Amino acid sequence: MNTSHTKNTPLLRTATLAAAVALALGLAACDKNDDRTAGQKLDSAIAKTEATAQDAKVKTEAAAHNAKVDMQDAAQEARAKTEAAAHDARVKTEEMTQEAREKMHATSEQTKADTREVTANAKAAVEDAGITARVNAGLAKDSELSAIRIDVDTKDHVVTLSGPVKNAVAKERATQIAQGVEGVTRVVNNLTINPGA
């Protein structure tokens, strides 16, 4: 058996007891006006620690709640902005589509009007050319006018005669031939009398 270990055990106990007494005296000396016992002081310290922990828990929960509310507000704001942007994009697209439709319609109407005008002009030109040809044929059939060069010009169904003729009778006869052609609305006789023609 180890005798040194046995001898040290009572010494160790005495030292531990002395340290506990010194600690108790130290605690008592810290606050001489405090009549509470060490147990009461310990209970008070535990209560303060629990109160501080509870306060920290409440603050943490409040901060978490505020963060959650802030995130929900930010998400709602982002949704609202996205919906507003989508709505604006739809409105602009609809406006651009409507504007394009209106421009296409206007262009289509203008094209139709231009086509009608071109068709009418072409038809009038063909009709005028036909009248000129028929007047020339009528003048060529007349024995007194066939040898004379008479210029016939037709515009909008109005026939203009120009050039020289031998006499007033020939001038009048050219007017009658031109007026007798279908489609002629008026004859402008600019023929000049030239007996040598």
Automatic annotation (TrEMBL):
<feature type="domain" description="BON">
    <location>
        <begin position="127"/>
        <end position="195"/>
    </location>
</feature>
<dbReference type="InterPro" id="IPR014004">
    <property type="entry name" value="Transpt-assoc_nodulatn_dom_bac"/>
</dbReference>
<protein>
    <submittedName>
        <fullName>Transporter</fullName>
    </submittedName>
</protein>
<dbReference type="Pfam" id="PF04972">
    <property type="entry name" value="BON"/>
</dbReference>
<feature type="signal peptide">
    <location>
        <begin position="1"/>
        <end position="29"/>
    </location>
</feature>
<dbReference type="InterPro" id="IPR007055">
    <property type="entry name" value="BON_dom"/>
</dbReference>
<dbReference type="InterPro" id="IPR051686">
    <property type="entry name" value="Lipoprotein_DolP"/>
</dbReference>
<keyword id="KW-0732">Signal</keyword>
